[in-house]
Amino acid sequence: MAGQDFADLVSTGLLKDVEEIVVDAHRTVYARAAQPWSRPAAYRWLRYEDPAPVARLAEGVRRLRKKGANFDAGAVDKACAKARKRGVLN
Fold it and tell me: Which of 15, 24, 62, 81 is deepest in the core (most CB within 10 A)?
């Protein structure tokens, strides 16, 4: 995804799909730890104000995996299918 045109990632909805998967996994980590969670907290955690949101999402996935996050397999499959269709994944 990082090598793709950003406007294309946004217009196809692929970036939003992947973003939702990561944010939802962040929520599950907080829920499992019985800690309060909010969407703004997830975005601050991802440092989403960074000018490279795709890189931040990838980093977020790595960090969440280390914390034992669960990712919605169906949502991941759907996003991957969309990415393949757009030529983002092989």
Answer: 15
Residue whose tokens read 């999402």: 57
Cα(82)–Cα(74) distance, rounded to whole angstroms? 12
Cα–Cα distance, 29 to 70 (Å, whole number): 8
Which segments of the chain have a pLDDT < 50? none
Instruction: Map out the domains of the chain as residue ranges.
Output: 6-85
The amino acid occupying position 27 is R
Query: Is the distance from CB of 74 to CB of 85 less than 8 angstroms?
Result: no
* pTM of the model as a whole: 0.70
- 44-66 pLDDT, tens digit per residue, is 877 766 566 677 777 888 888 89
Q: Give whole-number Cα distances, 40 to 2, 46, 47, in Å.
A: 24, 10, 10
